[in-house]
Amino acid sequence: MFKSKKLSILLLSLGVALSSVLPVKAADYKVTSGDSLYTLSKTFNTTITQLKTTNNLTSDKIYIGQTLNVPAQIYSVKSGDSLYLISKKFGITLGQLRVMNNKWDDYIYPSQKLLVPGTATTSSSSTNTASNQQAGVIPYSQADVDLLARLINAEAQGEPYSAKVAVGAVIINRVQDSRFPKTISSVIYQVDHGYYQFTPVLNGWIDKPATSESIQAAYEALRGSDPSNGALYYFDDSTTNTWLWSKPIAARISHMVFAY
């Protein structure tokens, strides 16, 4: 009798311990601009098929403001936390944490609720370092996001949000085009025939910190949003450069012109 009771307690304790790890937790996520089932599957470490099944979706289309059930849990911010420390705790990149929560500044406060993965992980393969490559339309690191956001900030300050995303998209379009360098940093810092391709690199504005909106625009462009319609160039509509104006125009957003 004593042994069986002890065994029951042991099994019950083991069951409780396992139950805190094994079940896949779920939480609600509100779709934002730039989201797709593909990007969400990468962000929440799941599959498009699983997202569609869980949310009873019959197509791959989702819309801004739509609420989706995703494999995640709610984390309550504690005193001393930072976004970086929380991302490390759950074995994800800072970028993933930002995307999960549509959180583009660094301000958090105790008891604030954030979406995080269903279980924490300490796997060395998922540690949050600047060199970790993240999933997007092109591979990118946290350093790439920071650089892209600073360029967007310098080039499109005072312009609408869509223009900021479009500037980021132009950089990504160049990375994907065989006529240009193959990484974000090499595109931004490219010198062609003795000239910098982007003025903020020349005048030093590239070194100014990016706003939260510019950071958000960088992530949105990296996830595939392209208001530039595939453009490879952009310029202000006040320019008198005839070479730029000779190029086919892909889009115009406020005072910015985007061309092929």
TrEMBL record:
Pfam families in UniProt: Hydrolase_2, LysM
Gene3D superfamilies to which the protein is assigned, alphabetical: 6.20.240.60, Cell wall hydrolase SleB, domain 1 (1.10.10.2520), LysM domain (3.10.350.10)
Stretch forming the signal peptide: 1-26
PROSITE patterns linked to this entry: LYSM
Entry-linked InterPro entries: Cell_wall_hydrolase_SleB, LysM, LysM_dom_sf, SleB_dom1
Membrane-crossing residue ranges in chain numbering: none
Keyword Signal applies: yes
Keyword terms: Signal
LysM domain residues: 27-70, 73-116
PANTHER family: LYSM DOMAIN-CONTAINING GPI-ANCHORED PROTEIN 2 (PTHR33734), MEMBRANE-BOUND LYTIC MUREIN TRANSGLYCOSYLASE D (PTHR33734:SF22)
Protein name: Peptidoglycan-binding protein
Lineage, broadest ranks: Bacteria, Bacillati, Bacillota, Clostridia, Eubacteriales
